[in-house]
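Chain X:
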Amino acid sequence: MSGRKATKQNSSQQLIKRATVEVHNNTSAEPPKLGFPVVGIGASAGGLEALKELLDNMPANTGMAFVVVTHQHPGHTSLLPELLGKETEMSVVEVVDGTKLEPNHVYIGAPSGNLAVLGGTLHRMDSDKKESPRFPIDYFFRSLSEHLKERAICIVLSGTGTDGTIGLQAIKGESGMAMAQKPQSAKYAGMPSSAIATGLVDYILPPAAMPKQLIAYATGPYLTAKALTSKSPVVSDEPLQKIFVLLRSRTGHDFSAYKSKTLCRRIERRMNVHQIRKSNEYVRYLQENPHEIDLLFKELLISVTSFFRDAEAWESLTPHLEQLAQTRPESDTVRAWVPGCATGEEAFSLAILLRECMDKVKRRHDVQIFGTDLDAGAIETARAGLYPAGIAVDVSPRRLERFFTCDDSQYRIRKEIREMTIFALQNAIKDPPFTKLDILSCRNLLIYLNADLQKKLLPIFHYALKPDGLLFLGPSETIGSLSDLFEPLDKRWKIFRRKRHAVSSRNLPDFPAQPLTGDENSIAEAPVATSLTEVHFAKQIERLLLQRFAPQSMIVNERGDILYIHGQTGMYLEPSQGEPRSNIFEMAREGLQIELPVAFRECVRKGGDIIRNNIRVKADERFFHTDLIVTKINEPESIRGLFLVTLRPTPPAPSPPKTKHPSQSIGDEENIELLQRELQFIKQSYQATLEELETSNEELKSTNEELQSTNEELQSTNEELETSKEEMQSLNEELTTVNAELQSKVEDLSQANDDMQNLLNSTNIATVFLDNELCVKRFTEQAKPLFSLRPSDIGRPISELMSAFQHDNLAANCRDVLRTLSFHEVEVRTNEGQEFIRRIIPYRTADNIIDGLVLTFVDIHQIRDAERAGERARDYFESIINTVREPLLVLDGQLSVVSANRTFYRIFRTTPKQTEGELVYELGSGQWDIPELRKLLEKILPQDSVFEDYEVEVELPKLGRRSFVLNARRMKQLEGSGDLILLALEDMTTP
């Protein structure tokens, strides 16, 4: 081991020892999971340097296994095992099918195929050779998340593209840990930047700093065997409630009804990220670092989602969607809601499937799919509709080609699918639901809620769906005990149909209260008005009783229920046994029990006052007499229809003298008289009761039928009112949602408009936009002086504007372009002599519709002036060169003749045609093919050298042997043009 490696290992020895003990003691809760963390490392272009740096700083006994997955050509022989083996003391193994994972080993994925982990073994999965592009990093990370759960760790290093991003999201969805290389330290920042953009990366570090943080995380309490197998959470109830309070204060959302085990594990993971072991300390950390509350909020909302997740479930849903598209009138709008839509994959999957079903049954419907979530960042991602290239694993090539466009190594959802969806922030538990839905897809929400909250939410879903609407749940979700609300269509893939019966109002949650009217004062004054009415009612009764000399009296309704009592009535009434009741017939004492109902019924039938005199009443084992008066109240209006029962004590009437039978006593005579009176009363009462009973039976039958009808109508009306109220709330929510969507689009449009305006102005190109009638729609600042344009000229025909150009036939050219749709370009000149290139092209919309013309005017005045200046300079220097008496040659980099002066042609008796383009050593009879001269000339351009007074003697045809002195130097040209060589030949032959 090198000294540097030994130093690093010794400095980390205690930390590694603890990591080894704790990690190796981990036991899997669900075999055959591994008992130690596995670190997946993804790298591509520039990744070799990052891998070397990472492993060079990684101790040899971390207790973790490392699996390296890279982008390599399938037919390439990988040298990574050999190269990385020099950087670490761990065993470096190239993966073959069935390789067992062991701690303190580095496994290198093969160049071909994909890598998966199952049962502690690595498996090589063959991929289609025609598949392009491949995403081996995403594939392995997703497999790692499914098998290792919390023990899955991923690291994204240097590379181009977005591979690894979707796999990282899967690992985070299973509460694993993610690292990414700091983009500034990466040779290619594409992959790390894409991973960081998800907002889910726990640590952003250069490779050299990753080992220390990785070991600290692995040795934290989160991954210990006790934490993974314990049924009691590390976060106790009191700190957990405080965390909920902080989350609610910061975000406005209450997580207390979510499953506590899931929440606690994710809170523990955040504690482990910051190396915090006590939950009270984490509460204090949250209070001191509000940004951590935002990160925890995002952590709690992470859900496992992807396009067409559980493909068989979507296939099972397809026939039901086809039936919906087939049976629904084309004028109807198909409405769907996806609560907990996360970053929008589920909503777009539903939109794509609906579009395919409508195409298959050859019917077109307007579609509205509402995607809602608590996470504002996820909603913004959904609205953008831009996803990593790794979605190609989940989306078929046919769907990718039809419903997506490739945008800089990413896929963007097409306009036709994007316009079917509306995304907005919403709390499905507190906010009113969307209503009149055909489909409700909730595959990422219920699994995070406790049973009570699920029972509260499912009736909302039932209410939101139309009769026979579809409910699509995730494979781990269920309707529980609410089978009376939904009937199963596919038990395996949790597809349900709404049952037609209405939901009881007691099953619905309390929606946010909405004011029924705008008159708040009238609502506030209602209790006061009621109180005043009651006071007025009591005063009216008291005045009436005073007019009757204030005897013992009671106000009762038609059923005999006592509404008001005046005076001492205990001698006439007593409470009955059982539950307390205030009915005068049930409370009447002996003697009144017969007379009172008869008199009351007679008063109801006849109206007016019904009087019964000298009634014998028994109270407390003694008898007394009273007069009974029952009066129907007709005035005042406020108490009309009630009855006044008055009881006035009287002395017993004297009995008439009778002839006494010898065998009778006075007491017997009184008893006989009393019995006769009672018998007479009973007969009368019986007859009256019998008649009233017959009448009442008929009335009751009729009334009962009317009441049943009325009750049904009232119930129906009440349901309609409740429905109308909820629909109003839902419509308000939809309007808010649509408004938020439109506001986002307006902001995007405003930003795009500003960008376009700044772009047009920065190009310094005069631009005019015309409609199909050749009227001005828009123009840039540079176009104003060319046509004397003002803002008020928008809408005017271009032919009516004053043009600054000579002999302008602009309108005719515009009409030709509109007719032929061909590009038109011409040079034009202004009256002041400025020169422009005028281009006219058709204006095409995103739907490839011609909507006018675009006119651009590029100022080429300076270019033309420079060209003319160059021509003048060329003529000037050619005149000088041709005046020189010495022969001159201009050569290029290949020593070919570019030009020569007149003296050269005269002395050597040649012509430009015979000279230009020829190599210098091939001129004439080859007399200039001198090796030394050739060597000197070849040094001039690369070395910027010169030579002077180089003497040569050559044999020239027709001239004989001549002596020349040669001088040569470099001629610098404009940037972009190759430099030249100027060669001067001075004839030194002695005459």
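Chain Y:
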Amino acid sequence: MLDIWTVNNDHSFGIIEESNSVILALPVASPPSTIKYSIISGSLPPGLRISGNNIVGTPFEVPRPTEFKFVIRASNFNTSTNVTELSDRAFSITIDGSDQPVILNNTGALPIGANGQLFILDSSYVDFQIDAIDNDTAAGQKLRYFISSGDGDLPPGLSLTEDGRIQGFIQPLLSIPVEERDGSYGNALYDQYGYDYGLRPDNGYDSFLFDSGAYDLFLPSKSPRKLNRNYEFILSITDGDTVTKRQFKIFVVGDDFLRADNTITSAGNGVYTADGTYLRSPIWTTDTDLGLYRANNYVTIFLDVYEAQVLGPVFYQLDSVNPDSTPSVIPPNLQFDPLTSELYGIVPYQPAVIKNYRFTVTASRYGTDNEIASTKRTFTIKVLGEVNSTMAWETPSTLPPIDANYISTLKVEASSTFQNPVITYNLVAGSLPPGLTLQLNGEITGKVNQYSSIGTVGMTTFSDGIYVNQTFDGGTTSIDREFKFVIRAHDQAEYSNIDREFNLRVNTPNDRLYSSIYIRAFMDQKKRFLFNSFVNDNNIFSPELIYRPNDLNFGIQRDMLSLVYAGIETKDAARFVSAMGLNHKRKSLIFGDVKTAKAKLPGTNNIVYEVIYVELLDPLEPNGLKLNSKITHHKNAVNKITADTSNAIWDGRENLSRMNIDEPYLPRPNQKITVDQTNISVSDPNAKSQYPSSISIWRERLKAVGLTERNYLPLWMRSVQDDVRQELGFVLAMPICYCKPGTSDIILTNINFNKFDFKNLDFTVDRYIIDAVTGYGSDKYLVFKNDGVTI
């Protein structure tokens, strides 16, 4: 026994400030030089490590005071006894690091104007960023900006984003109508216009020395027709734990306040600057990247700016030089209209595949006295030359026949001479068999519905009460077996497309419907999150390796589902419930090894797909051993089952007269027994017979429901595997993913490298999921009983 610790368990090293370097001595007494320390549980605060007999480092940022608990193991190899001595001790360290956001903008008026001015003209566009810093963002926190209720408002037309940007067009403020003239009292009908718009004269009576001027002498002056307004608001920033507030204001003025004939505003009031103008620079709304156009075609491109009637006309000029001193060049033969900023014309033949053109346009707005406000924008346009983008179908027009009610693996495919084509497929005419869907990547997914059911259409359909103009193969009545439809394939840039009419015959080898029965693991939220994180990891399941990722029957399996029985004749639910009357009870399965298998076309070695699955083991069937469906014990059972004269059956309860319970309040029996049950005998009150609940017995019970069609077994279970030289047959397994041929080993390596342990999950089942019963074509749940004689 190694005895070196000088403190008891749960010792705390105290509170340490984040981002400060520390050296904490481990509480050990005279440790030998050969001793080694390791963390066996919990973790040190990020940034700290064990070095020698000390904990050293600089703790990382934390969003809030955080306690880290860990266990350190001291180990030393005793050379005299050849034994490694161990000693463990639990510790804790608290890192203090709750930082408040710091707003960098000064309180008061925001420099939101065109040149950092402390005012902004109405009808102007605003894109202003409020800046803040918070060290806790290094710990994963995110700052969020908002204005609380009652903390003021932004000017109308502006909005605040959660990342602190004030954006939008400021709506014009109320103007004084022309009929109101200078806005003084009594110029219009009572209350027709706002009162107090008039200016208080400062050049009349009492503006000069007493009695030196006529009474109320007033020289009319220019009266602004728009209102100015200060919008004050309190901005809040939170990192999720703390909130910082700061008061700001935005001063919105009308354009007529920045004219020389404005007599009520002084230039030296500290707000207006010499570079202020009533003109607003044009605001470009067209993106700088104009896109890709084909050569030898007519081209029309509009370059737009934000326009409003109050802002004045805009004129455009095509510059000869870009801001970076490169030539400003538009594609040849294009014309530029300086009044509408339109590019138009026929781009001539071009041998190059793609050629880029960059040019700059200046948009200028003119004032009443030839004042100018301008904005430049540099655009890029790409011209595609005579590219030979030829497409061809790889899939013949006659598709392989498909059997009704079986999962489809059909796919159509086309090729293109375009470099690295991304081809998409659309159904443009005709219709697929009912139940099949064409995906954009050309996969035909689903399964053909042979018969109609509630909510689904089958291959044989009749109109509902309409008997006019009945036709076959195209009318309201259909018994089609051959389907014709047209699919269009086109490349990613729509340079070319190609159509093909396909023929698909649907075979109906079975005159009965068949169902498949599954079990699904129902886990708690924590374990579901663990499994979802695993199957959604693209580093493990590379999307380019997955087979039919858009098909629910293939791709990555995000439901923990396992097949119990495939291809049992579809019956009403009662028949299956009856089969579950014996040997069925809630049980847990054990995860085994992760394996791979190949699915091959019947009679060939052509691989359709590969599957990665994890084995499921039944604890009642170790090493493949199988129990009898009924086990009889000769020892008396603990709970004796009796019946009383009231025809109620109880398990060992005293009679009701002793319990003093009235009829309306009778307790529910612990074990409900019905007359059709066969697992409990009247002659066996001690329940000596028990019924094991195992997978093999489940399958035997289900087999008795009806006929079995083996071809409903998944293709990979019916395929000869290269390593064993025989078909796998039924495998109790949970598929993880289906992958393209030759790629399963790559994904399996990724899984092994990830070291995901399925034993951290729980595969406990208490019901069947059956994909169809008589009268219903959707999934149904059949819950197991939970009686005392099933084990």
